[in-house]
Queue: 2 jobs
Job 1
Amino acid sequence: MTNADRPLPDVWFTRDLPVLRAITRLVDEGDHGGSPYLLGQVVPASGLPKADVVNAARALVSAGYADALTNHAGDIVRFTGVSPEARRLAGLWPTPQGEWDRLLEQLATRAERAPTEVERQRWRAFADAAAAVGEHDGALLMSALIGGYVPRKG
């Protein structure tokens, strides 16, 4: 198999996501009154070399995760904002799967720490029922809750 036949190495977790988190953190913190953030501020915030940050920045802007200003040569010099999906990927906004996992953890903890056996059994039953629903349907439920959709009684 030649190099041309092999998939490219995954850079999402090693390069792009850390840069996205750094950009999102800077934009969200707003220490400078919502001013655009220089690429030079993202480099130390990401912990990656400048060349990696530049490549990640191009990929993130191209994918619509980040908004940026460029100079006359087309180089990214400032970040002005991030998309809603970037906020979810960076962890600022909830995801249905993450909230389902949090619910399951909360139920297990409440069952474990309930002051009486009757309450422990109730929390365990709730946890068992949630687990029986399954992660797919649970995530759909959390998606509806995150989005504010509550079904009306028929």
Note: Residues 96-146 form one domain.
Job 2
Amino acid sequence: MYDYIKGQITRVTPEYVVLDQLGIGWQIFTPNPFAFRIKEDTQQIFVHMHVREDAHMIYGFKSLDERELFRKLIQVSGIGPKGALAILASGNPNQVIQAIEIEDEAFLVKFPGVGKKTARQMILDLKGKLGALLEQVELPSAEDELPLFGVNPNKQELEEAMLALVALGYSDKELAKIKPKLDENDQLTSTESYMKQALQLLLKTK
């Protein structure tokens, strides 16, 4: 089983990144692909191989602790890899762990595909088992960028963020509620910053 892959990021899409290693392009699904950058420097991604009858999927993470939380989540009945990625993409795994520890079902059901039954199962299966990760897991975030004097020309970045959120399982109806707020915020200048703010809004509006 692979533990990590080192190479160059050659492509970033709303669902996955492509990591080139010795001429082989690895398609790696991540919680937030736009946390990665296309650059010549060698990057290391910790991976998890998920085998299905019809496909072998690779999921990638910037830290071992992030991958460990992903593996814990997919062990819960009702949560598959896509659902686990959506939870990790929230940008605040510690908040998720704390919700499990205090049995906050109302918070957990805000994630795509997580209903009351699945939220209860998460608590039953994981409560008391994630303490070691509580202060260690931290998802990557892009560097803050300066606002462009009240003008926001980054329509492409906003649309990329919307596509990434759809890929995570959020509905068009949910996104329609928050998109105007994102569009008028001239301090958001990158896809990653749109993603981060959108996820915060989504967790507040449900």
Note: DSSP finds eight helices and five strands in the chain.
